[in-house]
Each structure stands twice: as structure tokens, then as C-alpha cells.
Amino acid sequence: MEKLIKRTISGTLFAILLVLAAQNKFTFLVLLLFFGFLCLYEFNKLIAQKNWLSYLIFTALIFAFGFMEMLIGNSIGLNDASQILHVISIFVLLFLTRDLFSSKSLPKLLTNRYINTTFYISGGIVFLALIAFNFGTYNPNIIIGMFALIWINDSFAYFVGSNYGRQKLFESVSPKKTVEGFLGGVFFSAIGSYFIFKFTNELQFTSWLVMSVLVSVFGTIGDLIESKYKRQANVKDSGRLMPGHGGLLDRLDSAIFVAPFVYLFLRLLNYVS
């Protein structure tokens, strides 16, 4: 019970901070910059990487695709560069997913470490910014709605799994996750997508519904991938910043992994509309 109370309080404070920061595009980018540094610090500890190059790369990416997007809008050059980053990030995430299900360990070679910090962690944070800017126009409702779907999925997956879970989802990586919890998260995030549609008046309901499925599926995969990295590092949590949750990466692993896929979905919507 004590852990649940701590988890609820820290999660609520995190949500309030994110929602308040998202009301202004500059404060939101500053928050993402801060989050990115902390997540990279925690991830670098997991893969035993000690240097500043990953931080420099992240800083360059967030300034190029975040702050420059804020200052000059969706220029042709930035759009082309973001598409290249997007394609590479998607492929890296797909390879991580392959390794999650097929390999005994996730890649930890030096070159792969830089690939992962650049296109997995840094790329995920950058696409959170690009989702908020929604192709030139800053719109906090979409990014807040996406995070709301993640929180709904995580909360109900935890609740349903804790109370009704019987069949393990991926016991070798995350022993507490269950199939029932996963399906509960999908179901309730789908229900939540309707209320987000009504509250935000952004996108169509079917778009929010599809996004809820993307968040549930790819968010769970992102959580499992981070869990496997933690198992390889022989640690329970990525850090201690958030009581009841662990580190900041433990709280953002789903959002970081799912962001490029949500951005891809939004690009497709923008293309067909």
C-alpha cells in the first residue's frame, strides 16, 4: 500500500508538471531537454557508457528539431532532416524489438551503444517535441492526449494484472507483467481515447482510437526493452528520482519508444487529409 501511495503521488506530480509545461512551447522544450539529459544519464548507466558524446548529440538534435522548429517553423530543410531521422529511428526500434524476442541479450557493443542513445533515447525525446509541434503548429492537446493514453494504459495494466493476472506476458524479462494486464490496458486506453477526443476536440475519434492501440502495443514493447536492459545490468530500476516508479527512464520508457510510431501515424493522417 505504501508503494502504491508513493507511486500515485509521484505520478500525479509528474503529470501536473508535464501538463503545465506543455501550455507553453518554450517551457515544454526546456522540460524535454531536462528529461532527455536525465534519461540519457540513466540509460548510460545501464549500458556502462561513460562519455559526453551522447549528451552532445542529444543537445544538437533537440535544438535542431525542437527549438529551431519553434523559431522558424516547419521548413523544407528541417522536414527532410526529420524524415531521415524518423526512418533510422523506426528501423533501430524494430531491430531492438527483434532482439527483445530473439536474442539472449540486447546489443551492448560500442557502436550499438551510440546508435541506441542517438536513435532510441534521444530520437524518442525529439519525436515527442515534433508531435507537439504537429508539422509547424504547436498543439499541446495532442501530446498531452498521447501521454494520457500512456498513463491510462499503464495504470489499468497494473491494476488488472495485479488483481486478475494469471498468464505471464514475458516472464523472462518482466515477471510481473501478465496477458490479462496487457489486455486490460488496451481496453481501458481505448475507452479513454473517446473521452480524450471529447475533451480536446482534436483529431477524429477513430484517430485517437488507433493511437490508443499504438500506445498500448508499442508502449508495452518499450517497457519490456527497458526491463531487459535493466536485467542485463542487474538492477531493479534505472534510478531513484521518482518514488514508486524508479528512475525517470522507468516513467518515460513507453513514451520514448512509442513516440516515433505515433509521429508516423500523424504524418499519415496529415498526408491523407
Quick tags:
mainly alpha; two-stranded antiparallel ribbon
Can you give a write-up of this model?
The structure is a single chain. This protein has 273 residues and is mostly helical. The chain has one domain. Helix content is 78%, strand content 3%. It has nine helices and two strands. The protein has helices spanning 2-21, 25-46, 53-72, 76-102, 110-133, 140-164, 179-200, 205-233, 248-272, and strands spanning 168-170, 174-178. The chain has a two-stranded antiparallel ribbon. Helix 5 (110-133) crosses helix 6 (140-164), helix 6 (140-164) packs across helix 8 and helix 7 (179-200) packs across helix 8. The longest helix has 29 residues, at 205-233. It is globular, with a radius of gyration of 18 Å. The protein starts with a helix and ends with a helix. The mean pLDDT is 88.
Chain-wise SSE layout:
Blueprint: H1 2-21, H2 25-46, H3 53-72, H4 76-102, H5 110-133, H6 140-164, E1 168-170, E2 174-178, H7 179-200, H8 205-233, H9 248-272
Antiparallel strand pairs: 1-2
Distinct helical segment count: 9
What's the domain count? 1
Helix coverage percent:
over 70%
Number of strands: 2
Average residue pLDDT? 88
Which strand order spans the largest sheet, edge to edge or round the barrel?
1-2
